[in-house]
Write a structure and sequence with these properties.
Elements: E1 5-14, H1 18-25, H2 31-34, E2 38-43, E3 48-53, E4 61-71, E5 76-83, E6 85-96, E7 99-110, H3 113-117, H4 119-147
Antiparallel strand pairs: 1-7, 2-3, 3-4, 4-5, 5-6, 6-7
Amino acid sequence: MDWCRYRFRCAWWLAAPPDAVYAVLERAEEYPRWWPQVREVVPLDETTGTARFRSFLPYDLVVTARALRHDPAARVLEIGLGGDLEGRVRWTLTGEGAGTRVLYEQEVEVRARLLRALALPGRPVFRANHALMMRGGRRGLAAHLRAV
């Protein structure tokens, strides 16, 4: 097993129509407004930007994100990552009842030197850190959607 590779998958249900949720998720530069652990997003051009994340661990992850798929009809966003994390992220939205089911999938390899050195003993902590970040994202997105 490669202790520096991670695969995350989580599903959220949000009380908003899929197109409204998609409209928020496609504007990555606005994530810091509603997702507390996304500290900064800086667009570099139409399809690329840098992002800085921090959850409960006192360590910032910095990535360069590049849009790989932007499909409003299918409600799919896919992003390639480089930097401290290398891999991809995909958001897939479907209507469910009176709201939206959001599926988040992430496959990455940790490239940050310190986190690689701590890969084996730190793995449970890194997974918990990610879970808290995702919980913050779901709560922040739900509150943002209620406000708009």
